[in-house]
Write a structure and sequence with these properties.
The protein contains six helices and seven strands. The protein is an alpha+beta fold and 309 residues long.
Length: 309
């Protein structure tokens, strides 16, 4: 089998990616590494999909670079996770410099037993080419991400001199400048005049501290208020109005739906006011009395009519 793919990535970037087995393992589609780290980064399970079937192989791959570094040899062997079949792979990856990128060439052979033998040759070849295309795509992504992680060096900025190197024309820090007397042996280094500071007149007193260096303790502090709550205004009344207290009593323990839609009843019913209760009692006794008076008037009227000739 032979297959070629052009990628817009230079050969050195692809070579660095292929030289790292851990990065190559991330490029193989359908590959899952073993939990045992001692087995190597290219040891694990590989799912191979072809013709609507999925075959899982458990094994390992080995990747070795050539002497020139422009080609890599891949060898792999695995057994079916479910079944007694097996497969062996021998592949060569070649990197050829091309204008604007690199041409990656794949050439190799594969042998197997078990379920892979039942597949058609064209179906297996198409699945293998699709696997190589997906591997190439992940290889390009991994190479470009590695290039973006590398620090970019600006060529316009010259390299900084080393800490131990001295610029030409300048004496060393410990050597005295020509034309200036060396300080005495007993004289302290701090008493020697600095080369960049001007000579100060003798007899002048110590310099006054500048306004920028004024201590924060010299700034005035406003006196605290005697009453912390003097500036606060309390506008909330001490007791809520009677209507609010009555509404709060009637809504305790009720859900929002009951308050919005259901009429109050039972233990949640509002307590009637005293005026409404007194009016109800008066009407309760006045209605029978009025009916009795009307009935008596009717009876008296009929009796008077009968007595008349």
């Amino acid at each position: 089998m032979e297959h070629e793919v052009f990628v817009p990535v230079p050969v050195p970037a692809l070579r660095r990616t292929l030289a790292d087995p851990a990065r190559v393992a991330r490029c193989v589609p359908g590959f899952q590494q073993d939990a045992d780290s001692s087995a190597g980064p290219l040891a694990g399970r590989l799912k191979f999909r072809a013709g609507g079937h999925t075959i899982t192989y458990r094994g390992a791959l080995a990747l070795r670079p050539s002497e020139g570094g422009d080609s890599f040899s891949v060898s792999g062997e695995g057994a079916e996770a479910r079944g007694g079949g097996s497969a062996k792979l021998a592949l060569t990856i070649g990197l050829t410099r091309t204008d604007g990128g690199t041409t990656i060439g794949y050439s190799g052979t594969a042998r197997g037993e078990g379920r892979i033998v039942d597949l058609d040759i064209s179906t297996a070849l198409t699945a293998a080419q699709r696997l190589l295309d997906r591997f190439t795509q992940q290889l390009v992504t991994e190479s470009l991400s590695a290039r973006s992680d590398e620090p970019v060096r600006d060529a316009s900025v010259p390299d900084a001199p080393e800490s131990g190197a001295q610029e030409p024309g300048k004496p060393e820090s410990g050597a005295p400048e020509p034309g200036k007397p060396e300080p005495a042996a007993g004289e302290h280094a701090s008493d020697a005049p600095s080369p960049g500071a001007p000579d100060e007149p003798q007899g002048s007193g110590p310099a006054e501290p500048s306004a920028d260096k004024e201590s924060v303790f010299d700034s005035p502090v406003p006196p605290p208020s005697l009453d912390p709550s003097a500036e606060l205004e309390f506008t909330v009344p001490d007791e809520p109005p009677a209507e609010a207290a009555h509404a709060r009593r009637t809504m305790i323990g009720r859900s929002t739906e009951e308050v919005d839609h259901a009429p109050p009843r039972g233990r949640y019913a509002p307590v009637p006011s005293p005026e409404a209760g007194a009016a109800g009692i008066t009407l309760r006794w006045a209605a029978p009395a009025a009916a009795l008076a009307i009935a008596s008037a009717v009876v008296v009227g009929r009796a008077l009519r009968r007595r008349r000739p």
